[in-house]
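Exercise 3.2. Students should predict the tertiary structure of the chain below and write it as structure tokens, then compare their answer with the key that follows.

Predict this chain's 3D structure.
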Amino acid sequence: MLEEIPLIEKLKIYLGISNFMQDELLELLLSMAQDDIKGYCLLDTFPKSLENAAIKLAAYYYKKRPIDGYSSQSQGSRSASAMNEIPIEIQNMIAPYRKIRIRG
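Answer key:
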């Protein structure tokens, strides 16, 4: 039953959004999440089995998106961009799909 619901609608349910006013932003965040997961795992295509991870990552990006023009945070000597990190919970979800790159 849930398999038939478009990914953006699943994301909206996850975030508690019931209107269409942010659909373009949500589509962009889903695309970014899928691309980031593919890049992290060294995948050429995005498998359907990682859709829940993409929803969680897109929701993370939605909640961490820059507010008032700020795109990064600094804590002491540590600095991180909110849109370029994958939380450990999601890393654990996608770890079985991660390929190892061998350089020789």
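Discussion points: The radius of gyration is 15 Å. The beta strands are 72-75, 78-81.
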